[in-house]
Write a structure and sequence with these properties.
By secondary structure, the chain is of the alpha+beta class. The protein is 42% helix and 13% strand. A two-stranded parallel sheet has the order 1-2. Helix 2 links the parallel strand 1 and strand 2. Helix 2 packs across helix 3. The longest helix has 14 residues.
């Protein structure tokens, strides 16, 4: 599993995967992963060679009276879920 933190890193990895003929699936989330998102990750793993899970809280998705900073955040727990799914789905690590 790779933790990518910049757009440049993701672009580089995507280019590498594309040149290797790999199929990439993206599961976009705001973190605080739950069983529904876990099911999406499993489904993506069945359909692609590599699954990318984005964990990004976009403040533009919140209403005027909502505060993005109050959204639950536990990156370490989310990464643990991703790692356990990687093992359970037998997703291959690339690189």
């Amino acid at each position: 599993m790779h933790k990518i933190t910049t757009v440049a890193e993701m672009r580089s990895l995507a280019a590498e995967l594309k040149s290797a003929g790999k199929k990439i699936a993206l599961v976009g989330t705001q973190g605080a992963l739950h069983p529904g998102q876990e099911a999406l990750i499993r489904a993506a793993a069945e359909r692609a060679d590599v699954v990318v899970v984005s964990i990004f809280i976009n403040p533009l998705q919140f209403g005027r009276n909502e505060i993005a900073t109050s959204y639950p955040r536990n990156l370490e727990a989310d990464l643990q879920i991703c790692e356990s799914l990687r093992r359970a789905c037998r997703v291959r690590t690339f690189r």
